[in-house]
Amino acid sequence: MTVTAAARIGAVRDRAGGTSLPVLAGAGPVALRRTRAAREGWARVTVVGAMSAPLGGDRLRIDVDVAAGARLTVDSAAATVSLPDLAGRPAFYDVRLTVAEGAELHWLPEPVIAACGSDLRMHTRVRLGAGARLVLREELVLGRHGEATGDLTSRLTVEHDGRTLLDQALAFGPGAAPGWDGPAVLGPHRTLGQLLLVPPPALPPDVSLPPLTSLTPLAGPGLLLTSTSPRPAFSRTAAALTRA
């Protein structure tokens, strides 16, 4: 049995200067919980997996709308593990993030793990208004411990004030084009982390990048960090940049 489910989050600025959540609707395996925010004036939502998903054939979607002046953090309670089905069908996971002018969103899910035999196709679409702020983290893990990876395709499309800021696609696994595990791409590494910051911060002088990590200024108000280092090293660098 396959699952088709869409979850929605809507955040607005309230009269007291904080952020309220008039829309918080989970569906199927995507359960949403309001959790305690670390900073005053912010709201926080944690995505909780209500069942094993995505499985082959599933179609999951999350829509997040942050209205002007609102500030929202979305994280997850655990990693997302893509699993195969007996028919070998792909699973689809779409994320749509809309951040209005003067609003701020921190999208910080736990890693996505492509289990052996699975085929996951992800697409994250982001629309940012003028003056919107975004911290977006994506971590991809190819295979569980001691196993080969499944197929994993991830596309990230970001639009800022009506113009394309970033549009990239990554494909890994046995179904990807030859060379994905060659020295020019991942080599022997099986973890890829990305952090997108809009607008780009002023880099603190004490930030040290781990090996195989790059900082790429975008042709617009953004900075992209990409790393194939182990997750702890990536997380420390990401935390330092987020505080900048």
Shape: globular
Order of helices and strands: EEEEEEEEEEEEEEEEEH
- What is the percentage of strand-forming residues? over 45%
Largest sheet: 10 strands, mixed
> From the alpha-carbon coordinates, what is the Rg to the nearest angstrom?
18 Å
Number of helices: 1
**Strand tally:** 17
Helix content: under 10%
Summed over residues and divided by their number, the pLDDT gives a mean of 90
Please characterize this protein's 3D structure.
Strands 3, 4, 6, 7, 9, 10, 12, 15, 16 and 17 form a 10-stranded mixed sheet that branches. Strands 2-1-5-8-11-13-14 form a 7-stranded mixed sheet, with no helix packed on it. With 244 residues, the protein is mostly beta strands. The chain is built from 1 helix and 17 strands.
Short descriptors:
single chain, Urease accessory protein UreD, 244 residues, UreD, mainly beta, chaperone, cytoplasm, seven-stranded mixed sheet, nickel insertion
Give a quick summary of the entry:
This protein starts with a strand and ends with a helix. It has one helix spanning 231-243; strands at residues 4-13, 19-25, 30-35, 43-49, 59-66, 71-76, 80-82, 91-99, 104-108, 112-114, 119-128, 133-142, 151-160, 163-172, 191-198, 213-217, 223-227.
Outline the secondary-structure elements:
Elements: E1 4-13, E2 19-25, E3 30-35, E4 43-49, E5 59-66, E6 71-76, E7 80-82, E8 91-99, E9 104-108, E10 112-114, E11 119-128, E12 133-142, E13 151-160, E14 163-172, E15 191-198, E16 213-217, E17 223-227, H1 231-243
Parallel strand pairs: 1-5, 4-6, 5-8, 6-9, 7-10, 8-11, 9-12, 10-12, 11-13
Antiparallel strand pairs: 1-2, 3-4, 12-15, 13-14, 15-17, 16-17
